[in-house]
Amino acid sequence: MGIQSLGRISIIITLNVLEAKDFPIGCVFVAFCRISDRVVALDAVLMLFFLVESAVPACRSIGYSIVMKSILVTGGAGFIGSHLVDRLIAEGDWRVTVIDDLNDFYSPGIKRANIAGHLGSKNYRFLEADIRDVSALAHLFAATKFDCIVHLAARAGVRPSLAEPRLYFETNVTGTLNLLELARERGVKQFVSASSSSVYGINGKLPFSEDDRIHQPISPYAATKAAGELLCHTYSHLHDIRTVCLRFFTVYGARQRPDLAIHKFTKMISEGRPIPVFGDGSTRRDYTYIDDIIEGVRASIDYDGSIHEVFNLGESQTVELRELIELIERSLDMHAVIDRQPMQPGDVPITFADISKARELLNYNPTTKIADGIPKFVQWFRTTGI
Questions:
Q1: Domain range for residue 151?
Q2: H/E segment holding residue 309
């Protein structure tokens, strides 16, 4: 282990021990290390520990957060957001702020259940607010200096966006702009934003690469996600904010939204109800397990490469709808009754992620195949009954 690694470990150990002390010199020392971006040797840290009485309360009294980094997660009560918060709280060195409007796109009670385990953490706080509400956002940013923003809040879903395009634009485009403006004003230098595989539209080139043109979306939802990426690029270029846009490919797993196919089919089959299948069942999706997605999001928080980047986060394996239904049937040990429906406007025939770029730059390496992920989801479904 190198001296820098020893230094980092010793600082963390020393600060944990000093938590109950009252030692202002320690505050100055840690601030110096943080500002200079240097790591001192183990003996220097230990000497500091024995020299003084307490550091943490004095640092807090002047508003300096020792070791802890501050992160804002928008949409943090949702499916992906709540899993990310699980991860950040478990790491122990993040102060996590979540903003979520708990809207009724699906049951707010599900979202409250998602965050129930977070509320007891001293390093977590929750604000119920809408990202379209500039005043609420401004008050939040005035009170907290964020090191990073992970922007997951959105109006989601291709089909619902056809019915309410204005709502989708206001939330997904204007809401993103509101956050980027506050990041600019408050000097936030890392901005991770959720995009979607839907931005590729009907793409004849397989697999989908980040370099492919995305100028032909076929739903308002896809158009708003593409617009969000363009805003991120603009603010990165103009204001030196590192922006990382993540194109998620059909995420599933525990806490998945109830309107999405895997969750909806599982529930309907378990209740003996027919499941609506649009088309002949030959459409294909690149299904990505939630744990793999979180690894990619977490790596993006630490990404320090180019000032703007776009990554596909998928499994890089396509699964036919008929095969997906068979996997759910086997996991439930029940037979599905099919209600055949015509293809829906806005649906694409296939999604397929080229993840070579994420592998190289984020060390992203999805490990959960659909044949393993579906039984895990069904087990969660049966346990929770949601």
A1: 69-384
A2: strand 308-313
> Does 198 share its domain with 151?
yes
List the catalytic residues.
221
Shared-domain flag, residues 42 and 105: no
Clarify whether residues 231 and 277 are in a common domain. yes
Same domain, 232 and 89: yes
This prediction's pTM: 0.83
Question: What value does the mean pLDDT take over residues 138-144?
Answer: 97
| Number of domains within the chain | 2
Terminal-residue alpha carbon distance, the chain: 47
Residues 152 and 89 grouped into a single domain: yes
pLDDT digits (tens, 9 = 90+) for 184-226: 999 999 999 999 999 999 988 999 999 999 989 999 999 999 9
Per the DSSP assignment, residues forming a β-bridge with 124 are 96
Backbone Cα Rg of the chain: 23
Half-sphere exposure in the Cβ direction for 74 (13 Å, CA) = 29
CA count, 13 A, side-chain hemisphere, 136:
14
Tokens (6 digits) for 48: 């500091």
Residues facing 341 on adjacent strands: 278
CATH of residue 198: 3.40.50.720
> Are 156 and 184 in the same domain?
yes
Of the candidates 39, 61, 83, which is a domain's last residue?
61
Q: Among 11, 44, 61, identify where a domain stops.
A: 61
Average pLDDT over residues 106-114: 96
- Bridge partner list, 60: none
- Strand 284-285 to strand 319-320: parallel, antiparallel, or no bridges (unpaired)? antiparallel
Task: Read off the pLDDT of each residue in 270-298 and give the average, rounded to a whole number.
Answer: 96
17 and 150 in a common domain: no
Helices marked H in the chain — which ranges? 3-17, 24-36, 42-51, 56-61, 79-91, 108-115, 134-143, 158-163, 165-169, 175-186, 220-239, 261-270, 290-302, 321-332, 356-362, 370-384
Kindly state the tokens that stand for 103. 């809207």
Q: 54: buried, middle or exposed (CB in 10 Å: 19+, 13-18, 0-12)? A: middle
Say whether both 39 and 173 belong to one domain.
no
Give the 3-state secondary structure of residue 131.
coil
pLDDT tens-digit readout, 360-377 = 999 999 999 999 999 999
